[in-house]
Amino acid sequence: MRLVSSWGRLSACPHDVLVLNDRSKVSNVLAGHHPGIAHGMGRSYGDVCLNPEGVLWNTTGLDRFIRFDENTGRLTCEAGVLLRDVQRLVIPRGWILPVTPGTQLVTVGGAIANDVHGKNHHVHGTFGDHVKLIKLVRTDGEIIECGPQLRSEWFAATVGGLGLTGVIVEVEIQLNRAAGPWLETETIPYANLDEFFQLADDSEAEWEHTVSWIDCVSRRGGRGLFMRGTPRGDFDRLEPQGHKLTMPLLPRISLVNRLSLPPINMAYFYFKKWQAGRTVTHYEPFFYPLDNLLEWNRMYGPKGFFQYQSVVPREFGKDALQAMLEQIARSGDGSFLAVLKTFGNRPSVGMMSFPRPGVTLALDFPNKGARTLKLFERLDAIVREARGRIYLAKDARMPRDLFESGYPRLNEFLKYRDPEIGSQLSRRLMGA
Amino acid sequence: MENKKRIVIIGATSAIAEHCARLWVQGTTVELTLVGRDATRTERVAADLRVRSPQSNIRVVQAEFLDPIAIQTVVDAIAGHGAVDAVLIAHGSLPEQSLCQADLTTCHEALDINGISPVLYAEAFAKHMAKTGHGTLALIGSVAGDRGRKSNYVYGAAKGMVTRYAQGLQHRFAGTAVKIVLIKPGPTDTPMTAHLKNQGAKLAPVEDVAKKIVDAVERGQAVVYVPGKWKLIMWVIRHIPAVIFNKTNL
Ligand SMILES: Cc1cc2nc3c(=O)[nH]c(=O)nc-3n(C[C@H](O)[C@H](O)[C@H](O)COP(=O)(O)OP(=O)(O)OC[C@H]3O[C@@H](n4cnc5c(N)ncnc54)[C@H](O)[C@@H]3O)c2cc1C
């Protein structure tokens, strides 16, 4: 048994960790040791990748490439390959992952199981939109190959399926053409939500990537920085040197608190505002700004932190955001990492995928126990009323009714579950 | 023929070897021969390396690890293709000490695969390197070979044999261009040690260990502990007087 935490570090519970590293032997391991749940890099914030006192099938040993066709951009690999290793392999050869989350230190399997999204949802949808084939191993030994056209109901259940339909062993992905590692980027300060929506609408036609940082502490009602980027091919520069900094110790208290937060946010806003404008940026710092600050999740102290990410339909978007920001500013908690982004209109492939048309807000909150949970209840009420949903990859506490109203295809999904697979999240929200 | 570096890995499916291979093909193109017992698994490693480095030539050779005649044949065939620049002998398995004590067959197999087999492979390559006066021969030993301890002395004895053997080869090739490298990894995070990790052991990441090995082979360094701290730790362990050592629970 080994103590395992997820990225939010809210718990460290013993798990029986079994390493999968031979793809032809996965079914042997699953058969002998269940119930369990697949665990990639544990970059999910809550309990979707945890199974306390039970088995975890660690997939990071399944890290081999299988085939890459440089002419068509089709990549086949094992499910434990990191997005970082895919990017570093394919970008120099003129290809790129069409969709990537804000960290590249996640596995391909984890990216599929949470059907992750990036800054370009309005152009390229979710990660699952680019997956052509999944090889899934079930605990009874059955191997299911599925894709958008092949056993597509299994595909729809497995993309965004939270690891509950089986263990993904092999994956085929269609990459996009890339002219190089560079992006033209622009940062634009905005003063309120109206300006944010205006910028989002104006940018989405011409900019592949859009995202914004919003100051959730200031009571001035939603000022922030809008960032947009678009690939640029005609650049030939030296690659940046990656400097890695690690949070050295676990601070005894959270470094993110009522005293530290307002000045940090203010400084960030003015510093960036001062830097605003157009520039050329390498894809790594643009897509993955935190990856060089290894283990930054430690700065929230020993009790860990929550991330609260919701999406609400556009028609209620502004009111809901306003109401949430007000609750957060009033609570005085909130965090530095507050991200606001619009999703495009493309429906997600997965039955349980998070992205849907609308606007999504993601915030970190240091875990202050009951007080934080009380704030979440107030935010939940706003999300519920706006007919929104909460991202399961980030969740550790949402009430079941909000889960059920947010994910209307739940009953359809349950038919594809593997009875010998379960996580802390599935027990909390699905009863088993 | 072009001047690609020729590298041979014995036991190419071992996690440490596989990560060394990834580093070797990264950046430059090489001619790599992967020798493994299980052809399918070795082929899988090769496929991954071919994706990483389409310009490299990657060959798979299936081989027997215990039979001296078969070893000789395989090595002669590989060397017959042209002078080898570097050989990494990486295979092994971590037996459970209690099983070795309970059953002589298990004990015998542990000694064979961790001691005899690497020595036979090295000896076969040494013959060719002596002839060509060229190449680096690297063997993976272990910190466990530095002093016998009750918790894993059968494995330690086999690795101790590799240590003595490498010393002898270094003596034999002293003053020539042939370099003998002995690598002594501490506990490394690989499938072989997964049970140790579950018991809470702190293990070195295999990528870091591989990086140090590839560097040591490049430099032709005689003895290298990875991670480096094991040099000091093992110096202490070797020098604890037996009266005290035998009271410890190492
Ligand atoms: C700094 C940071 C930024 C992030 N930014 C974004 C973002 O922009 N967009 C976004 O969508 N997400 C984002 N995330 C969340 C992250 O992308 C997801 O949580 C991702 O799924 C983590 O992958 P992982 O390999 O760590 O999987 P884990 O967290 O270990 O597991 C996640 C889920 O995948 C399942 N799983 C893993 N491997 C397999 C497999 N082989 N077969 C079946 N199931 C499997 C697990 O069972 C679990 O349900 C971010 C996370 C961090 C830490």
Summarize the structure.
The complex is a heterodimer of chains A (432) and B (250). Chain A has 432 residues and is an alpha+beta fold.
Structure write-up:
Chain A is α+β, with helices and mostly antiparallel strands. Chain A has 13 helices and 21 strands. In chain A, the strands form 5 sheets. In chain A, strands 16-12-14-13-19-20-18-21 form an 8-stranded antiparallel beta sheet. Chain A has a 5-stranded antiparallel beta sheet with strand order 5-6-10-8-9. Chain A starts with a strand and ends with a helix. In chain A, 49% of the residues are buried. Chain B has 250 residues and is an alpha/beta fold. Chain B has one domain: Rossmann fold (3-Layer(aba) Sandwich), CATH 3.40.50.720. Chain B is built from 10 helices and 9 strands. The longest helix of chain B has 29 residues. The chains are: A alpha+beta (432), B alpha/beta (250). The interface between A and B is medium-sized, with 18 and 15 residues. The complex binds flavin-adenine dinucleotide.
